[in-house]
Amino acid sequence: MIPFIDLTRQHAALRTELLAAMAGVLDRSEFVLGGEGRVLEQELALTCGVRHAVGVASGTDALRLALAALGVGPGDEVLTPAFSFVASASTIVMAGATPVFVDIDPATYTLDVRAAERALTPRTRAIVPVHLYGHPAPMDAIVAFAGRHGLVVLEDAAQAIGATWAGRPVGNWGDAACVSFYPTKNLGACGDGGMVLTDRDDVAERVRRLRHHGDGGRYRHVELGYASRLDELQAAVLRVKWRRLGEWTERRRRLAARYGDLLRDLPLGLPVERREARHVYHLFTVRHAQRDAFAKALADLGVGTGVYYPLAVPNQPMFGGDERRFPEAWRAAREVLSLPCFAELGDEEVDTVAAAARKACEAI
Ligand SMILES: *Cc1c(COP(=O)(O)O)cnc(C)c1O
Fold first, then answer.
1. Residue 130: CB within 6 Å of ligand 1?
2. Domains defined for the chain, CATH in brackets
3. How many Cα atoms are found within 13 Å in the side-chain-facing hemisphere of 65?
């Protein structure tokens, strides 16, 4: 059996260090908005080359609070890809604005800037590009497009910490960006967590206020806020893992290259890495016209896989369901299948998965 993902391997390897970090938090008994979180914010700001990072309770809250801090609200339309995790769009609704879906580039699964151009209206206020699977969206074109039309840019970097576009880190291009520390993400906590990254002083200050009840200091609350902090136990865990992030990313890239070599001649759509991109392979996602049969054949051969995502966002029941205006997103939802790809996966395991994929393709 080869698991799709196995977090126990990572935690077994780091067990002593993680327990020591957690014990330190217990000894200090400072659990919310303390020193670990502050240092982690500095570390993440460094990784993404931005001046500010603000820890919050999840990647979802990072998006929601960043939208609010950017002044996005009722009456505003926000462009977002039709193929992503639901939070890229649902947080726009939470902010009181309207998501306007944009179809994707079928090679990289990131939003198609020409389609974004066609979706503009006088109400368009912002754009939320998603660096899906760890491949950056074309940020130079997106920032230029946003500049021409006076839009704010919020990067959804939940799957792409450590990725770069044209040599510049994701999280560094937009007015703000969000990352997620959900346990299966490339930098995952032992629970939930997220962060807002920004170079803008006003946005950082507003997110700090919003995450803690609109706090203006000394129990003075200047606006309606939330209870959305990154806790110290998660921050301490993340600081241990942050030191490995570079090495883990390199490992994911080597696994992806190995898959690429072994799967090249199969009737599969393989991940593409654009010339400007440094892909961090949060997921190694292939396409097959008969995806469900392919997944079943792999399962029968003992290989775990995952479907991210079986529905395009506009096809989610919460967004109405029956929607055919985004053909590339719709086709991706039917064809994508992610293979095991995590830093602790062995080369021999990649070879086994690739051999199983070959058998499965022949059998279908
Ligand atoms: C995981 C994820 C989120 C939400 O992050 P959570 O920490 O799970 O709330 C948002 N957008 C994308 C693309 C994600 O993959």
1. yes
2. 7-102+109-242 (3.40.640.10), 245-363 (3.90.1150.10)
3. 37
